Amino acid sequence: MNTIGKILTLTTFGESHGPAMGGVLDGIPAGVDIDLDALQRFVDQRRTGQAMGSSQRDERDRVEVLSGIWQGKTLGTPIGFIVRNTDARSEDYEEIARCYRPNHADYTWEAKYGIRDPRGGGRASARETVARVIAGGIALQALNHLGITIESSIVGPRLGVAEIQEAAKDGDTLGGIIECMVKGVPAGLGEPLFGKLHAQLAAAMMSIPSVHGFEYGDGFEMASKRGSEVMDLFVKRKDGTIGTATNHSGGIQGGISNGEDIVMRIAFKPVPTLMRDLPTVDRSGNPVTLHPRGRHDACVLPRALPIVEAMAALVILDNYLIKKTNVL
Amino acid sequence: MNTIGKILTLTTFGESHGPAMGGVLDGIPAGVDIDLDALQRFVDQRRTGQAMGSSQRDERDRVEVLSGIWQGKTLGTPIGFIVRNTDARSEDYEEIARCYRPNHADYTWEAKYGIRDPRGGGRASARETVARVIAGGIALQALNHLGITIESSIVGPRLGVAEIQEAAKDGDTLGGIIECMVKGVPAGLGEPLFGKLHAQLAAAMMSIPSVHGFEYGDGFEMASKRGSEVMDLFVKRKDGTIGTATNHSGGIQGGISNGEDIVMRIAFKPVPTLMRDLPTVDRSGNPVTLHPRGRHDACVLPRALPIVEAMAALVILDNYLIKKTNVL
Amino acid sequence: MNTIGKILTLTTFGESHGPAMGGVLDGIPAGVDIDLDALQRFVDQRRTGQAMGSSQRDERDRVEVLSGIWQGKTLGTPIGFIVRNTDARSEDYEEIARCYRPNHADYTWEAKYGIRDPRGGGRASARETVARVIAGGIALQALNHLGITIESSIVGPRLGVAEIQEAAKDGDTLGGIIECMVKGVPAGLGEPLFGKLHAQLAAAMMSIPSVHGFEYGDGFEMASKRGSEVMDLFVKRKDGTIGTATNHSGGIQGGISNGEDIVMRIAFKPVPTLMRDLPTVDRSGNPVTLHPRGRHDACVLPRALPIVEAMAALVILDNYLIKKTNVL
Amino acid sequence: MNTIGKILTLTTFGESHGPAMGGVLDGIPAGVDIDLDALQRFVDQRRTGQAMGSSQRDERDRVEVLSGIWQGKTLGTPIGFIVRNTDARSEDYEEIARCYRPNHADYTWEAKYGIRDPRGGGRASARETVARVIAGGIALQALNHLGITIESSIVGPRLGVAEIQEAAKDGDTLGGIIECMVKGVPAGLGEPLFGKLHAQLAAAMMSIPSVHGFEYGDGFEMASKRGSEVMDLFVKRKDGTIGTATNHSGGIQGGISNGEDIVMRIAFKPVPTLMRDLPTVDRSGNPVTLHPRGRHDACVLPRALPIVEAMAALVILDNYLIKKTNVL
Question: ipTM score of the complex?
């Protein structure tokens, strides 16, 4: 349940204020060069959105790789890794333990498990994404060796630093949309039925905290177009290969990559933690008032870019490996 | 790869013009009453959109249940089922075998497998969804016994019979958006990390042919709202239980159901088969002209309603069963 | 739960006296030549042990392939198949429905599911193995194309026709041991941790009805040997490759094939259906006497040979495919 | 590939001389009391066989639980854990890096991955079992809360301290057989087809390093018995429940537990590391002589007892959880 992937699998663990976050990346091919310094820099991007409204915690997440890489190369064995948690002030959580924060997972978590770790949101904290970025960063290096690259950017609807600062001043928060492109993917990746490439990408992206929508290619706009308006006609390229003149399909047709850029957009809701008093209920349903505490991002989008790229990398590399098994 | 689900799994098979479509629904609990006549009627809904633009083929899909149900009750064993294919005029496919239809899966399928069954689209045909509807119809009956119901409707952007007929007259096609609601789901279903309930629903819906987008709750609109505008405040209901005053979250918080109605929207692209001549390329990349043949829907949305409901039923029942394992 | 395999998966269904047995073989590579007549002959071997004590039912199991193979080649899509059940005399089962046959699955099945199909043993019947033989027969043809072959034989302890006939005359039954060899397997197949090649083979063989033991290489005998007595020393073969001078390890070291013949032995218990009156209990625990009915094998070993080979083929081909993903 | 289990899954990582061994136990129910001191003592049993021939390394494996347990209770979230490696003298491995040790995994590992960590056997070292014992120890505590207990003992064929010491004096090694009993298992656990309870146990036990055989109940002996000799007749017990008068079936019938003690035997080959010079080949196939180094057990059986119990606990608890999903 804490595992994603078919051949390349990532299993993660960790509560926000427990000893460590971590994961196991299994199924990574053997003999792949991994640059651990570059990996650390990729992980550090989860902190670099500060100028655009991220919180000021100095929480450099030092990656400890515990297995699977030796002398700079993957061994084919699982890559275990951890990041220690340092910001664990457990005195903060008593109010949260007694009541349910709106738009958080406090209530649903208790409905499911009957128990919950209230310290910093426990495992429901977005801090769990650090393990995704580490694993995805490794997958990304493997993809880069194959000539496949991933880019992401905030495409709206509100993305200015000023706007984020204004919301923060009001104790309020903002959502947004990230567009992610995967370039250099060969045609033929993806499973045509339940494992359509875009279905796997959707599941991966929708599993990122705060995501409420996913589309690829022309997405929701396609619903209001006629077929003749979104037809990606085939062309023979100068090098003799076959491509499409347009890319309404977003690089995927019938669930399988067609060699064009894979394009998708992911919608994030505004962060649920406001810097205002909020009315809510305690565990008995009685009204209480929540008081803001701690430091929180007014907008997670800048921090979310490497997370989106990491999830894309995990899915694409997994499907690259699965593709190898389609012929004897 | 042709399997979906964790405890409740559906595995499907079948090419459009092969002997039969079918599937295996495994993990269905034992002792559940199944009404096979009601199941057949649910499956028949895949044909009932005719007045709204579906094609005129008379292809009643008679469900043959081969195992797993005895004397009207599930045995706990896998339910194997098939539907025979009857509309298999194999003389039709020679043109399609030589070239790639735009916005179809012909090219990508060959890129993946090096071989493809061109007859009626082979396994890439939307006909494969009949197996989903059968299995989902069984899951739906089990959910109904638990007081959980599923409704879906076409919510836009173009949904009038007149509009579909107009597009059809032009040899063109239309897409659209389906909204699906699941009512009566208890709080606590869904896996909070990679298996977030909405991530599973997204993967299930995105695996339906022609789907290009998925959102739940306020979806993409949330990206342009402030946190304070989409906050679902908790309230104590008259019966003492806890609910939310609004449902921007679409019944899911932190990836787990919160007891409110689950609400999601699924965007379909227009059908790629136009009733017009179309320019494309053959397998060598040389230009050819495709001539329309056969009868095809100008809009699949009316037929897609039971498919959407079936996929929702499979995901919800699977998570209902997983929930049972959260306590000793 | 009714699925085996990782990349190459087999999912089966069917009750002994229901409409049909069947299965779905998914993950088979595309473009593999399959000879359906040869497949039928392989499946027929489940009936050919008659001279050695098998029952006299004339139950030719005609294989209907419903998908995944076209013009003699695999498409890369799932191969669905069924075999109709014909020997369904439902008047036979009333006694069995009321009581539990010793050493059968009647009691445990009810303990698990609360319901059971008593007709011919339902899904607990060894008839379910027909689906394994069909799928394994396809896998075997794929392996043969790669130069990998599988042989099995009855190696004891009682294997004479006379002995089986004598037991049958007493209304009694016999067990036995089958040895299975896989030849031509390249070095490097198998997953070194939980998926050790012999662990996968053990699980596959132990899942065959009536199997009570599994060993590979020198097996249980190794437990009473000194290390120096079972050491497979490496040698350089004339062709320059590396092999071992002996094969105590049975072709697998550290869970991975080493290029030598894979050798394993599987122990079957005697058939539990005696042709004698037997004391047992009904569902309330009260004593009743079971009267023999129908025709049953006095020894299943002759029929079990293709089943063992089929299971071996499924495991080896699955691991052959997994191996492809070990490098980028 | 480094994961075992269906609902309760264990994923492990770690090379013998890397920074740490570890694992993630996912799917453990929420709210279970775990005694971490008792867990450490269980893990310490991997070292206590010293009087019976284990090596003298003082390698107390201090368990660090990183997540999933809070205030003495499971949270329902994955339990991540590590054990640091301390005995990492990397100068030792140069000879091993150049040649293949007989009956080890050096050659096959290279055939599979093209690369291998030679330090202390890398991931092929039996040291990886420490992660199994930690996870299994947690599962065992959960089972104990349910009244299910597990016992194991060395049953032969050579088990005396004197005999082990004699072999050690010759620089030789010994194998042996461990019998494992699971008591208090309710009837109804196990999946009747591919996931037969004994098939799962076989796979789990065969995945332990050095294991070459598995049997349950009367095992291989059943192959030479008549059906009438191994019939476990049903009896009504004084408390009104149904049991069997004998237990030739080893507590499992038709792949499902019947409420009797589960009994199985596991055969271990002699340790492959002899304290003698051994002839072998280098990576080019040329003859070389291996010189013994380090300290090694002459017999692993005493250390293997908690490993066997741990694997049994993981399988039984997993099936206990799966059983919950068999009814609506």
Answer: 0.96
Say how far apart CA D153 and CA D150 lie, in whole Å: 11
pLDDT in tens, C178-230: 999 999 999 999 999 999 999 999 999 999 999 999 999 999 999 999 999 99
3-state SS class at D30? strand
What the block records as the tokens of C215 is 């060993």
What does the block give as tokens for D229? 């000799």
C-alpha span between C238 and C248 (Å, rounded): 22
Exposure string of A148-159, with b = 16+ CB inside 10 Å and e = fewer, is bebebebeebbb
For the beta carbon of residue A91, count every other beta carbon within 10 angstroms. 6
Say whether D324 and B324 touch across the interface (CB within 8 A): yes
For every residue of A238-261, DSSP letters joined together read TTS-EEES--TTTTEETTEE-SSP
* Rounded Cα distance, B156 and A146, in Å: 42
- Find the residue in A nearest to C142 (Cα): A328
Nearest to B213 among A124, A192, A214 (CB): A214
| Superfamily of chain region A3-325 | Chorismate synthase AroC (3.60.150.10)
Q: How far apart (Å, rounded) are the C-alpha atoms in residues D46 and C216? A: 26
Burial class (CB in 10 A: 0-12, 13-18, 19+), C235: middle
Burial class (CB in 10 A: 0-12, 13-18, 19+), C283: middle
**Residues listed for chain B:** 328
Reading phi first (left if > 0) and then psi (alpha if -120 to 50, else beta), residue D259 is in left
Q: Which of C18, C27, C30 sits opposite B66 (nearest CB)?
A: C18
Q: Kindly state the helix (H) or strand (E) to which residue C84 belongs, with its residue range.
A: strand C79-84
The span from the CA of D249 to the CA of D244, in Å, is: 10
Locate C220 and state its tokens.
């249980």
C80 at the A interface (CB within 8 A)? Answer: no
CB-CB: which of A111, A156, A250 is closest to B256? A111
Q: Which of A122-126, A306-310, B308-312, C129-133 has the lowest mean pLDDT?
A: A122-126
Name the amino acid, one letter, at C69. I
**Parallel, antiparallel, or unpaired: how do β-strands D256-257 and D252-253 relate?**
antiparallel
The share of chain B scoring above pLDDT 90, in percent, equals: 86
Taking 70 as the pLDDT cut, the residues of chain D under it are 48-59, 87-91, 158-159
B199-238 residues touching A, CB cutoff 8 A: 199-200, 202-204, 206-207, 209, 212-220, 222-236
Task: Give alpha helix (H) positions in B93-212.
Answer: 94-98, 106-113, 129-145, 161-169, 197-206
Residues of D in contact with C113 (CB under 8 A): 326-327
Cβ B36 vs Cβ B63: under 8 Å: yes
The pair of structure tokens assigned to C52 is 């050695």
pLDDT of residue C50: 41
Contact D325/B76, CB-based, under 8 Å?
no
CA distance A251 to D268: 53
What number of other Cβ atoms are within 10 A of residue C44's Cβ?
15
Q: How far is CA C219 from the centre of its chain?
A: 19
CB C115 within 8 A of CB C288: no
Residue C189 exposure: Cα atoms within 13 Å on the Cβ side: 25
Q: How confident is the model at residue A158 (pLDDT cuts 50, 70, 90)?
A: low
> For residue A294, what pLDDT is reported?
74
Residue A27: closest CA among D6, C8, C327: C327
Q: Is A241 on the interface with B (CB under 8 A)?
A: yes
Per-position DSSP letters for C42-54, written without gaps between them = HHHGGGGGGGGT-
Positions in chain C short of pLDDT 50 = 50-53
Q: CA-to-CA distance for B159 and B175, rounded, in angstroms?
A: 9
Contacting C residues, span 125-154, partner chain A, CB-CB under 8 Å: 142, 145-146
Structure tokens at A51: 């100028």
